[in-house]
Automatic annotation (TrEMBL):
Gene source species: Prauserella muralis
Entry-linked PROSITE patterns: 3_HYDROXYISOBUT_DH
UniProt protein name: 2-hydroxy-3-oxopropionate reductase
NCBIfam families, per database record: tartro_sem_red (TIGR01505)
Organism ancestry: Bacteria, Bacillati, Actinomycetota, Actinomycetes, Pseudonocardiales
Statement: the UniProt record of this protein carries the keyword Manganese: no
Keyword Amino-acid biosynthesis (UniProt): no
Length: 291
């Protein structure tokens, strides 16, 4: 399949590489030339612009930081909708506001372009291992077309509802992930404050009812205070804003989400925005006078 891939960052680069490895013809574009060159070295085609990436593509995938970039790349002059031929399928895998996904779908319909919102979970490790969880909003028929491509980059791939639904499920994912990181951090601070070896304690927790993927993947690095980013606090801050805005729009109360949002914001204010979101531990340490 001919694929245009726009956004070759920490997630997009390995994802585009998996598509090339799966036998798809991938033309990639990014504002960072080195990222485009990396895709070309992996067997993809180096596109010189958004228009160049879209030209001749049956499917266009966007993987961008936030809704302003999606709006510029998709809706802006010279963007995806200005260059995609009718019948093209646009799969936006960025994590953005649900209302932006709905707006994009409406604008695309007027051009005869089909759209899916398909945000992912799993971070850089999931992208590199082609093990992402992908939650997809849009028409079922379009999901069926996109599924072979999604299977090249993910393991859990689910159609969750109409346009925007993928983004709502991703917001729910991020509030749960943030909450678990905050609680694991508190567990570490509690055990260490009481003179208990936190590594041993977390090993026990990981074998009981408190078991979760974050304990499986991150407990050792958190105890060791190794916070090299797989998913930066800056990005999780953005995602918590999306969750809070969605809650307000749905007229529902999410008090725990509000607290986690404040903890993530505090981590950014402390200068930890470039660290992995497991660095929420540092906020709890600071609050406890143990930084």
């Amino acid at each position: 399949m001919n694929v245009g891939f726009i956004g070759l960052g920490i997630m997009g680069t390995p994802m585009a590489g998996h598509l090339v490895a799966a036998g798809h013809a991938v033309g990639g574009y990014d504002v960072v030339p080195e990222a485009v060159a990396k895709l070309a070295a992996a067997g993809g085609r180096a596109a010189s612009s958004v228009a160049d990436a879209v030209e001749g593509a049956e499917v266009v995938i966007t993987m961008l930081p936030n809704h302003p970039q999606v709006e510029e790349v998709v809706l802006g002059a010279g963007g995806v909708l200005d260059n995609a031929k009718p019948g093209t399928l646009l799969v936006d895998m960025s994590t953005i506001r649900p209302e932006t996904s709905i707006e994009v779908a409406k604008a695309a319909q007027e051009k005869g372009v089909r759209v899916l919102d398909a945000p992912v979970s799993g971070g850089e490790a999931g992208a590199r291992q082609a093990a992402l969880s992908i939650m997809v909003g849009g028409d079922e028929a379009d999901f069926a077309v996109a599924r072979p491509l999604l299977e090249a980059v993910g393991k859990t791939i689910v159609h969750v509802g109409p346009h925007g639904a993928g983004q709502v499920v991703k917001a729910a994912n991020q509030l749960v992930v943030g909450g678990i990181y905050a609680l694991v951090g508190e567990a570490i601070v509690l055990m260490e404050g009481c003179g208990v070896d936190a590594k041993t304690g977390l090993d026990v927790l990981a074998g009981g009812l408190a078991a979760n993927r974050i304990l499986d993947l991150k407990r050792e690095s958190m105890v060791a205070r190794q916070f090299e980013p797989g998913f930066r606090i800056d990005l999780h801050h953005k995602d918590m804003g999306i969750a809070m805005a969605a809650a307000r729009q749905a007229d529902v109360s999410l008090p725990m989400t509000g607290l986690v949002t404040q903890l993530v914001a505090a981590a950014r204010a402390m200068g930890h925005g470039s660290l992995d979101h497991s660095a929420l531990l540092k906020v709890t340490e600071q609050l406890s006078g143990r930084a």
